[in-house]
Amino acid sequence: MSNIEEPNPTQPRPPAYAPPAGVAPTGGYPVARPPGAGQPGQIRGTGISILLYIVTFGFYGWFYYYKTHEEMKRHSGEGLGGPLALILAIFVGIAMAYLTPHEVGSLYKRAGKPEPVSAITGLWYFPGIFILVGPIIWFVKTNGALNDYWKSQGVAA
């Protein structure tokens, strides 16, 4: 004799997985969340980020791309995500100058706000790569827009 009860054939069996009340089952596939439904990202100081980039001889840039793209994907459910952003940053770094502001602008667009940055913002980066003024302007605009978006989502500075 064991303590396990035999199932009653007259009662229906409960499903193996029952979604929470009010949520439709999706067959195990992820559901696209509405904008702002995911956890917002972290605010990163522009000056500190530039300093870390210089002190680490550019390696912080890879970390920055990984983290910001991972946070944007986690928040919106769309975009490159961290691993793909890191691979692109390492092997085709110039592409990130266009992809990052595009994704930041897309966050605003999905929230129904005007885009402060877009892929065109990347034009600040490429021609100025040799004189450093362009990339700094690019980073100030892109990181500032991302920080402003996170603040609009309730993240404390």
Describe the structure.
This protein has 157 residues and is an all-alpha fold. Helix 2 (59-76) packs antiparallel against helix 3 (82-91), helix 3 runs antiparallel to helix 4 and helix 4 (93-110) packs parallel to helix 5 (133-152). The chain is 48% helix and 0% strand.
CA gyration radius, whole angstroms:
22 Å
Q: Per the principal axes of the C-alpha atoms, what is the gross shape?
A: elongated
Q: Please provide the ordered H/E string of secondary-structure elements.
A: HHHHH
- By DSSP, the count of extended strands is 0
**End-to-end span in angstroms?**
63 Å
Largest sheet geometry: none
- What share of the residues does DSSP label as strand, in percent? under 5%
Count of DSSP H/I helices: 5
What is the averaged pLDDT score? 84
Helical residue percent?
40-55%
- Unreliable stretches: 21-26, 29-33
The chain-level structural class is mainly alpha
Q: Layout of helices and strands, plus pairs?
A:
Layout: H1 46-55, H2 59-76, H3 82-91, H4 93-110, H5 133-152
Keywords:
157 residues; mainly alpha; 5 helices; elongated
Question: What would a concise description of this structure say?
Answer:
With 157 residues, the protein is an all-alpha fold.
